[in-house]
Amino acid sequence: MIIEAIGIIHTPYKTKEECPIQPLYASGSPGSVEVFEEYGQGLKDIEGFSHIYLIYLFDRSGRIEFVRPTFLDDEPHGIYASRHPCRPNSIGLSIVKLVRREGNVLIIEGTDMLDKTPLLDIKPYIPRFDAISSASEGWTAGKKWRPKPGGRE
């Protein structure tokens, strides 16, 4: 299986410690998505969407542990029951706000990834298909937000 990057995500975050944990906690956090020229035609009509999914590579995630504590809980949970970046295939997924398009560059807000993250794909967020009102929160239900160790968001 061969997957190639279609672009690069640019954010203000150089280290994992600086980076917000989820897009919800990165509201207003600026960034841009540089789509490589050969993939640029695929951006046609993207301007009509307010939000997009970015699918990317956790290229600096670290050691994989299949059961580990998360930022919401000290109790260890399985990696597939969490959004921890240290995963077997290192694929990340974030919903970000699409501010505007400038040629092959998308200006976005709500970034929660490191600068120069390889972009694998983009998909539009479509509320009528993507918002599931009956979805359950699993073990995260009732968990309160906790800042990262060291007090960072």
Describe the structure.
By secondary structure, the chain is mainly β. It is 3% helix and 34% strand. The chain has 1 helix and 8 strands, in the order ββββββββα. The chain has one helix at 127-130; strands spanning 7-10, 30-35, 51-57, 67-70, 73-78, 91-102, 105-109, 117-124. Strands 1-2-7-6-3-8 form a 6-stranded antiparallel β-barrel. Strands 4-5 form a two-stranded antiparallel sheet. The N and C termini lie far apart (36 Å).
List keywords for this structure.
8 strands; 153 residues; two-stranded antiparallel ribbon; mainly beta; 34% strand; 1 helix
Assembly level: single chain
The gross shape turns out to be globular
Poorly predicted runs are none
- What's the total number of strands? 8
Please indicate the percent range of residues in DSSP E strands (runs of 2 or more): 25-35%
Give the biggest beta sheet: 6 strands, antiparallel, barrel
From N to C, what is the helix and strand string? Answer: EEEEEEEEH
State the share of residues found in helices, binned by percent.
Answer: under 10%
